[in-house]
Amino acid sequence: MGTTTTTLPLHVCNVKKTDMIINRLHIFLHGAALLALFYYRITTLSQIIKTRETPLIPYLIVIFSELVLSFLWLLHRPSKWRPVTRIAYPERLPEDEKLQPVDVFVCTTDPNKEPSLGVMNTVISAMALDYPPDKIAVYLSDDGGAPVTLAAMKEAWKFAKWWIPFCRKYEVKTRCPDAYFSSPESAADKFIWSTEFVADRNKIEEKYEEFKESLEKNLKIIGSSVSKDHPPIVQVINDENGNEKDSSQKGMPLLVYVAREKRPSHPHHFKAGAINVLLRVSAMISNAPYFIVLDCDHYCNDPTSARQAMCFYFDPEISSKLAWVQFPQHFHNISEHDLYDGNLHYYWREWEGLDGLRGPTITGCNFYMKREAFYGVDRIPKDADLNQLKKFFGSSNELIRSTYKSYKPNVSRDEGKAGARYNTVVEDSMTSLILHCKGWISVWIDPARPCFLGTCPTNLNDMLVQQTRWAFGLLQMTLSKFSPLLYGPPRMSILQSMSYGGLTLDPLYVFPFYGLGIIPQICLLHGIPMYPKVSDPFFFVFAFVFISSQLKHVQEVVSYGDPLRTSLYDLRVWMMKSGACYLYAVLNAILDQFGLNEANFSLTSKVVDDEETKRHQEGIYDFQSSPQLLAPLCSVYLLNLVAFIIGTARIFQSDKGKEVFAQAVLALFGITVNYHLFQGMVLRTDKGRISTSITMIAVAITGLILFFGSLLVFF
Ligand SMILES: O=c1ccn([C@@H]2O[C@H](COP(=O)(O)OP(=O)(O)O[C@H]3O[C@H](CO)[C@@H](O)[C@H](O)[C@H]3O)[C@@H](O)[C@H]2O)c(=O)[nH]1
Ligand SMILES: [Mn+2]
Question: Transmembrane ranges (predicted)?
Fold first, then answer.
């Protein structure tokens, strides 16, 4: 544990040197080019104001777009400054008696979108964690208050009593039963030839089939209705079959069902609300000093995750400041063509860099958290009276008593409440900002064998809906008093504040997307130059900025280990997000400011659709999506297509046309990168194509943009 020189470290942190050097060089080169670019813009702008040779408004829009792009580029730089990776060595932990208890929180909401079998697989995989069973308690929060979920849990308990001993006996690695049976792992070497293993395995498979049947039967009898109006239900499932000392309970963790009270008149704050209820309920039952949050679809794929996390909490050098250990979200339903960036590598690439600062943000689930940090008790003075404590913890005397027994907390000087933050649907980013600002650090670990595997959206619509929710949440955060660029700097380093700023301000990409996707193209049609001529030395500056940002992106993708084509898919996702998700997120955020937007958390579906899965596997875009999301993208596409065709004709016709060469290249870039939209609108005939009605709407919108955009050319 690092106390003497002879003991081996529990974990190591490696700086990714090559990436670090490339990143830093790029920051300076690209940064210098940007300065040159803006020097050009400012000098030409003053000329334009004098001479009025070029229309001012389009020119200002282009400059504004470039400013937003560069500002966001700058905010994302700290996360490139020092990328690191980590390895933990759980085998070097002290003996089991010294390990601290861990509570597992699983959240589910709707058995129709989150089928019970999947949820129970997650619950069972958590119960089977490789950790002393008396130090594990699994809590399921059922936000649907669905009787079918409670019934499923009782069946899960029965099956787990077979499953857990089997996993222990044969050192099974894949402890999510569904994953285990669908791609059977071979037994650990020492059991491989044993007939006993084969017999046990067949038996357990039979039990699993029975378990599945029982869930189906329940579903038929009970139905999958959910309720938004019910009293709280807390049920310890273990109790069903006797008391704790009963032999049937031995070697089994605690399993608890929780459906918090729901009333239509009362806001329930979605997942953040669910976590906070679990925090309080568990404080009264097991009250472990650490807890982990899992989404109902994120099963434990490596049973050692808790031990890996403990490697950091046991390190005396960081343990007192360490709040959470974050594992990435990886997905079991990803295809080799990850068309929608479902694996979220866009984020994880940055998280390696955040880890090199003071730690990654919480990313919704798969994080081990120190309960004390989450309570914010570091801020509670020692001599706090009960009233002060109630202001912080709420009115429950029992909760305060139980908390006090274990942590002897001291009282909050800030007026906040304990737990996850409510102000936004991205409770995770908000909560981590506040914890980082209090001086806590966090750790990011992404082992070769993913510790958790979830279900990611496999069609465009789900991806867009999910990204819209995130973007809206991040904007809510930006517009709240926890706006990172204002709230951060007095409390944490400027680099860390910038990273949070980069995360929450990503929705601003909507402005350059439309600014640069429409204006230069319309000007191209009218033969009005927006960029320097090819013969102008500053043309080189623009070309450099453009090429350098594209190449840097390709380098990041490849160095992260993804195939080259991912950089193209990424670029498309970025454009689709900017043109659709960010657009609606910004509109909703504006409505929200006027109190006109109803709080909402649109769940992503975890139900498998065969045809959709097939398209996903084959790498074919699934465009069955609402016109609202697709039409804006298609319109911009069509505009670029028209601009490119007519603009190129002009370039070949007249000498003056050559001044708009850069704009023609820009339009060509847009239509080439987004060729999938062209395919969807024009070439494809299958069910996943872009419907004719959406294409027609897009044609109409393109006409409107052309008309109104052309008016701008006169100002
Ligand atoms: O009122 C609610 C709404 C959602 N959930 C649960 O929250 C989890 C995440 O919901 P999901 O529909 O899967 O959304 P995703 O977009 O896939 O979730 C991502 O984004 C969320 C923030 O928007 C994070 O909380 C998640 O961890 C992260 O995986 C699921 O287990 C839900 O059951 C609740 O418990 N109560
Ligand atoms: Mn999810």
Answer: 25-44, 56-75, 508-528, 629-648, 660-678, 690-714
- What's residue 657's pLDDT? 72
| Nearest to 380, CA basis, from 407, 411, 404 | 411
- Supply the residue whose CA is at minimum distance from atom 15 of ligand 1: 604
Give tens-digit pLDDT for 540-589: 999 999 999 999 999 999 999 999 999 999 999 999 999 999 999 999 99
Cα dist from 124 to 146, 173, 662, 703, whole Å: 19, 13, 58, 56
Q: Which residue bears the tokens 């472990």?
A: 288
CA distance 206 to 195: 17
- Domains along the chain with CATH numbers: 92-454 (3.90.550.10)
Rounded to the nearest angstrom, the distance between the alpha carbon of 141 and the centre of ligand 1 is: 12
3 state DSSP class of 42: helix
The pLDDT value given to residue 400: 76
pLDDT (tens digit per residue) in 95-129? 999 999 999 999 999 999 999 999 999 999 999 99
Give the position, in ligand 1's atom list, of the atom nearest the Cα of 602. Answer: 12
Quote the pLDDT of residue 406: 61
Sheet with 254-259: strands ordered across: 233-236, 254-259, 136-142, 102-108, 290-295, 367-370, 322-326, 441-444
Question: What's the CA dihedral at 7, 11, 13, 14 to 10 degrees?
Answer: 80
Give the residue ranges of DSSP H helices in 626-660.
627-653
- DSSP letter, residue 651: H
Residues of the chain with pLDDT under 50: 1-4, 409-415
- CA distances in angstroms from 209 to 408, 487, 650, listed in the order given: 48, 53, 69
> Of the residues 428, 462, 506, 570, which is catalytic?
428
- DSSP H helices, 314-459, are 345-355, 371-375, 386-393, 397-407, 427-437
Q: Name the DSSP letter for residue 564.
A: T
Residue 407 has a pLDDT of 58
Cα–Cα distance measured from residue 524 to residue 531, given in angstroms and rounded to the nearest whole number: 11
Candidates 104, 105, 107: which one to mutate for ligand 1, based on the most atoms within 8 Å of Cβ?
Answer: 107
**Which of 122, 419, 106, 134 shows the shortest CA–CA distance to 292?**
106
Q: How far is the CA of 552 from the centre of ligand 2 (A)?
A: 30
Rounded CA separation 28/212 (Å): 58
CB 589 within 8 A of CB 426: no
Q: According to DSSP H, which parts of 195-304 are helical?
A: 195-222, 270-285
In angstroms, the Cα distances linking 262 to 111, 143, 271 are 17, 8, 13
428 is an active site residue: yes
Compute the distance from residue 427 Cα to the ligand 1 centre, in Å: 10
